């Protein structure tokens, strides 16, 4: 197993970002839930990979994505970073969350026209731009903070994307990337071009960035307790269509929120998702 001990050498001593255990507390920030499944499928078709707020059977996956954005808004001083880019913004809930958290100027970037139309309609105060993630339309050093969550695994040119992040990030700026952990993520997702282990993820960023924090997202106490009794909740969701789930699974998924996940350093090979925080040169 990969030992991230060396990362502690460059961890910022003035912050408490990498706590021994970080349980995500309830936040007063709320993102508008999509009104209905019909509303989503009319403006932003569900692909089986994309998730959105307000759809009960997507609730686990949405909460798992939401947890990383909530961690950013709780633990990183985004309100002092200047311009922020959310690269690969997708449905737009995360970009909106960054804006609601007090960030001064937030831009979402995505390539698909349908996605951008949806974001502009559902989150009208969020600025979104169409562009290619490996060749963005932004100037050098344009942003003080760049986030790209659950995106890099979809890209064919991952090193080129990382290089592009380095180009548009201002010196001393902060980059946050997340991706599923290949060692624990179910295999066979054809939307993913290349999934990464913690070691591979770090290796991808090393040529361009100083990695300050390597974190893993894990199930919290409630989800862990459920799985002890019933088995993997992820496997159970993937084993059948949602209208065939038993009552226990359906109740769990309906009630899952971002507070059911923990983000912490250590045991990265056992985590569900990987999160790297890095600084530009």
Based on the model shown, name its key terms:
S-adenosylmethionine-dependent methyltransferase activity, Methyltransf_11, transferase, methyltransferase, globular, Methyltransferase family protein, 281 residues, Rossmann fold, alpha/beta
Would you kindly provide a written description of the structure presented here, covering whatever features stand out?
By secondary structure, the protein is α/β, with parallel strands linked by helices. The protein has a domain at 55-219 and 264-279: Rossmann fold (3-Layer(aba) Sandwich), CATH 3.40.50.150. Helices cover 31% and strands 20% of the residues. It has 9 helices and 8 strands. It has helices spanning 37-43, 59-75, 93-100, 113-122, 158-168, 198-205, 221-230, 233-239, 247-255, and strands at 83-87, 105-110, 127-130, 143-149, 169-180, 210-219, 261-264, 273-279. Strands 3-2-1-4-5-8-6-7 form an 8-stranded mixed sheet, with helices on both faces. Helix 4 (113-122) links the parallel strand 2 and strand 3 (127-130). Helix 2 runs parallel beside helix 3. The longest helix has 17 residues, at 59-75. It starts with 36 loop residues before the first helix and ends with a strand.
């Amino acid at each position: 197993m990969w030992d991230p001990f060396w990362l502690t050498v460059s961890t910022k001593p003035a912050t408490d970002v990498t706590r021994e255990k970080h349980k995500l507390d309830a936040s007063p920030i709320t993102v508008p839930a999509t009104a209905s499944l019909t509303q989503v499928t009319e403006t932003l078709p569900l692909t089986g990979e994309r998730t959105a707020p307000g759809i009960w059977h997507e609730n686990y996956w949405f909460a798992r994505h939401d947890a990383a954005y909530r961690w950013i808004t709780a633990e990183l001083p985004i309100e002092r970073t200047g311009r922020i880019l959310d690269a690969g913004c997708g449905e737009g809930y995360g970009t909106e969350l960054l804006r609601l958290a007090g960030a001064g100027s937030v831009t979402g970037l995505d390539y698909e026209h349908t996605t951008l139309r949806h974001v502009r309609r559902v989150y009208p105060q969020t600025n979104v731009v169409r562009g290619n993630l490996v060749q963005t339309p932004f100037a050098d050093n344009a942003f003080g903070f760049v986030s790209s969550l659950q995106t890099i695994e979809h890209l064919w040119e991952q090193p080129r994307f990382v290089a592009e992040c380095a180009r548009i990030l201002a010196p001393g700026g902060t980059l946050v990337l997340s991706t599923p952990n290949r060692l624990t993520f179910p295999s066979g997702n054809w939307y993913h071009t290349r999934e990464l282990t913690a070691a591979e993820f770090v290796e991808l960023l090393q040529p361009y960035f100083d990695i300050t924090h390597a974190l893993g997202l894990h199930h919290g106490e409630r989800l862990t307790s459920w799985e002890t009794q019933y088995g993997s909740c992820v496997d159970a969701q993937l084993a059948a269509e949602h209208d065939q789930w038993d009552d226990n699974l359906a109740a769990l998924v309906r009630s899952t929120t971002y507070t059911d996940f923990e983000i912490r350093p250590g045991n990265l090979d056992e985590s569900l998702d990987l999160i790297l925080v890095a600084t530009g040169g």
